Amino acid sequence: MPLARLVPNQITYNAAISACEKGCQWQLAVQLLSLMPEAGVVPNQISFSAAISACSKGGEWQLNLLSLMAEVGVVRNEITYNAAISACEKGGQWQLALSLLSQMPDAKVVPDKITYNAAISACEKGYQWELALNLLSVMPQARVMPDEITYNAAMSACEKGGEWQLALHLMSLMPEARVVPDHITYSAAISACEKGQLALNLLSRMPEARLMPDKITYSAAISACEKGYEWELALNLLIRMPQARVVSDEINYSSTISACEKCGRWQLALNLLCLLPEARLVPNEIIYNAAISACEKVGEWQLAMNLLGLIHKVRLEPDEISYSAAISACEKGGQWQLALNLLCLMPEAKVVPSQITYNAAISACEKGGQWQMALNLISLMPEVRVVPNEITYNAAISACERATSGSWH
């Protein structure tokens, strides 16, 4: 701009800071704000609000900028506070968001709907469902009416806290408050459900509210069925998706396979895995892990091993869950050598064994009468910073008892 003999003014700086905010460049936004006085341009509320909004990933820069406003004589208003609280919400800083909200009365700034929505959303992201509900309850006192965004954030907070009854109760209060539930409301309520039947009931109510279930609501319902060990309902929903003109994805298949795995329906889990290419979907690690776990539950160690091999073939990286499930399948199938071989391969694959991995391997040794191996594995656990638990010691003791009882015959 100086080359074109144009001097940047307040409007151009504000536009540039806003561009940085949209481009997630918080350092540049702060730098531009700091350059304004040098250029003889006085920052205003818009300048600070845009810079504060950009600072969602900038630690405590929001607070520093708010303090700076007072120093340079710019009055903080609800826009700047809302920008700061929203930045805290995006950055997962619920304590800071609540601290800023509590400071507003002293600064003679009245919180509005945006303020409360951002603060409730910050609590939701921080798994603070009680605080989220408390904020919702004080809104009428502050003469601020909640909207669907408020209720959705509060319901999501309840869902994350496992408080499904509270989430459904909030949804039931919406008509009284003259708030119309939307897709997000139903998705949050369905996600909160721990029983598939409840989720299905909510899904069936959507057309009455002139809302058609979409991919998010179907995904939430299938996930609820998985949580509730209701494989038939999960499968039924997956089948219904094409009829409802909703395209299924890897998440839907993963949840359905996991529901089948939890209920011991390993053949169904494998059938679903085979159907993925037909649906033009590529299996990911989560899907393979669910299928391996399904085989593990019924001791189908050969199939579990084949699936683990397939993960490598399709250029995916097996993780701790993949190995633990395969080792556990070998343990159930009485294949202690294979279990130990898999455990030995883990460091090579840059996968750190967990307590579950070691417990499965020690149990495999116990079943195979390999008490020395079992004790050796326990001695190796501290080296890899894995703490033995009751299951670990019980498996090792059982291995020693078997060896002792065998020596008496």
TrEMBL record:
Q: Which Gene3D superfamilies match?
A: Tetratricopeptide repeat domain
Q: Which UniProt keywords apply?
A: Repeat
Where in this chain does the entry annotate a coiled-coil region? none
Ranges: PPR repeats: 9-43, 77-111, 112-146, 147-181, 249-283, 284-318, 319-353, 354-388
The cross-references to InterPro entries, in alphabetical order and at most eight, read: PPR_rpt (IPR002885), TPR-like_helical_dom_sf (IPR011990)
* UniProt cross-references to PROSITE patterns, sorted A to Z: PPR, PROKAR_LIPOPROTEIN
Q: Which domain of life is it from?
A: Eukaryota
Can you name this protein? Pentatricopeptide repeat-containing protein, chloroplastic
